[in-house]
Amino acid sequence: MSFASDTAVRRIARGRYDATIATGWDIGGNANGGYLMALCARALADAAGRPDPVALTAHFLAPGKPGAVSVETEVARAGRRFATVTGSLTDAEGRAIVQLLGTFGELVGAEGPERMEAAPPELPPPDACAVLPREEAVSAFRDRVEMRLHPDDAGYAAGAPSGEPRVRGWFRLPGDEPIDTLALLLGADSFPPTIFNAKLPVGWVPTLELTTHLRARPAPGWLRCAFTTRFVTGGFLEEDGELWDESGRLVAQSRQLALVPRAAREPAAPG
Amino acid sequence: MSFASDTAVRRIARGRYDATIATGWDIGGNANGGYLMALCARALADAAGRPDPVALTAHFLAPGKPGAVSVETEVARAGRRFATVTGSLTDAEGRAIVQLLGTFGELVGAEGPERMEAAPPELPPPDACAVLPREEAVSAFRDRVEMRLHPDDAGYAAGAPSGEPRVRGWFRLPGDEPIDTLALLLGADSFPPTIFNAKLPVGWVPTLELTTHLRARPAPGWLRCAFTTRFVTGGFLEEDGELWDESGRLVAQSRQLALVPRAAREPAAPG
């Protein structure tokens, strides 16, 4: 059991891949969106002939359940430096689960002008951060990824949200499994929703769309992550993420659009 | 000549549309990305059977030139409230220009919890803002959309960039043409690149990917817009946009990923 093996795909024809949604990656029975994106990205990267999802968008159409799935890909354009590929994940009954569009390339360390308007989030060391609660709905998922929350952002789990729609923390894969660029897609969608800290009468927020931009392959070690929501309006919210590696480099940005249902939050709402 | 007529599409078969990239929407010969997105979105909305692009992503594969084009669409899933559609814009030679993925619905004013962490950008009245320079490369485009720049952000055009990678200003269509949700896609990609204000040795920044999230249909009148770049690193930059209507409502957010070539900026680099 590893991220790499649980996102493996097998090419069965040109552009067609078989895969399995593994058990344990679910939140209350539905596979985590970042996990599904990473699994699909493995197929898309193969089809693109390039390893790194520079910009990848997923629209989530139906919950993914453990079991056999297939990924169909099509190369829209293969250029000198990038290839743009579409993809769709369907289950064994042919039901559409995720639709994707991405541009792939090789993130081998571009030189050029740099200008950073923000620094990595300041976090206490991982051991001084909060371990996420192991509710029944996410019990296995807590073994799939390692996360430590900033103490100021962890109160929601005990019914004391901070009031700021923000979640900061550390992320890595267990057992020192390296974080490649596909694992960054997972990291961008593993933390509890920011809205859990917002003191709003909002329940679970299903993700409609998630786009991740990758800037670099991460250095080994923990990732520093920060997720914030600025606008809850019109029945939607956005959640913006930043992922930084241990060398202090911004390796990924993410933004998702989620629905804001007017529902009571379930007591055991998981992360 | 209007935005609506210049983005018109004609269905020629199920999921297939003919259209024309009209003259005058180009920046130095290549059609503006927001214009292309809007044209495609008109086809996708028809295929989706829903008018509003709630979340739309475009990957730009090759420059769009004036002339006949076609848009192929495919519905990935049509649900009760949303439909998710893929699309591709090709020119008369079959060359892929733009690849798209979007979820469409009806933005009819959802009720529910609201929480805003930011307000519309403060701008002097339109008449006290700067008219964009009418360089040769964008001469016609300046007649297609009306923009007024915050005086603090307009110095780049005279060789005096502010030093902040930010562009704020007003946007509307000429002749009081109403701004529908498709025109918001145009507004999200019409302003000069933020990087022009950054005092960096960066030339033109081609857009790799642009995602726009729509929250509401705009009230009539000017839009207040703000675009910022926080991270120039790894050979890429992001540009985040916010569009607010005259009622003070956030109607759209956008984020694009652009390439940062190490090229000298052309003297007449247009907006």
How would you describe the overall organization of this protein?
The structure is a homodimer of 271-residue chains. Chain A is mainly beta and 271 residues long. Helices cover 11% and strands 39% of the residues of chain A. Chain A has helices at residues 3-6, 33-48, 141-144, 181-187; strands spanning 9-13, 16-21, 26-27, 30-31, 52-60, 67-78, 83-91, 96-105, 115-116, 130-131, 146-149, 166-172, 207-214, 223-228, 231-233, 236-244, 250-259. In chain A, the strands form two sheets. In chain A, strands 1, 2, 5, 6, 7, 8, 10, 11, 12, 13, 14, 15, 16 and 17 form a 14-stranded antiparallel beta sheet that branches. In chain A, strand 6 (67-78) and strand 7 form a beta hairpin. In chain A, helix 2 packs antiparallel against helix 4 (181-187). Chain A is globular and about 50 Å long. The two termini of chain A are 21 Å apart. Mean pLDDT of chain A is 93; it is low at 264-271.
Topology:
Two copies of one chain form a homodimer.
Chain A (H helix, E strand, L loop, with lengths): L2 H4 L2 E5 L2 E6 L4 E2 L2 E2 L1 H16 L3 E9 L6 E12 L4 E9 L4 E10 L9 E2 L13 E2 L9 H4 L1 E4 L16 E7 L8 H7 L19 E8 L8 E6 L2 E3 L2 E9 L5 E10 L12
Antiparallel strand pairs in A: 1-2, 2-6, 3-4, 5-8, 5-13, 6-7, 7-8, 10-11, 11-12, 12-14, 13-17, 14-16, 15-16, 16-17
Order of helices and strands of chain A: HEEEEHEEEEEEHEEHEEEEE
Round the Cα radius of gyration of chain A to an integer and report it: 18 Å
Specify the number of helices of chain A: 4
Provide mean pLDDT of chain A, rounded.
Answer: 93
Q: Can you tell me the residue ranges of chain A where pLDDT is under 50 for at least 5 consecutive residues?
A: 264-271
The tally of beta strands of chain A, per DSSP, is 17
Most residues in contact: chain pair? A-B, 59 and 59 residues
Strand content of chain A: 35-45%
Largest beta sheet of chain A, briefly? 14 strands, antiparallel
- Large-scale geometry of chain A: globular
CA-to-CA gap between the ends of chain A?
A: 21 Å
Quaternary structure type: homodimer
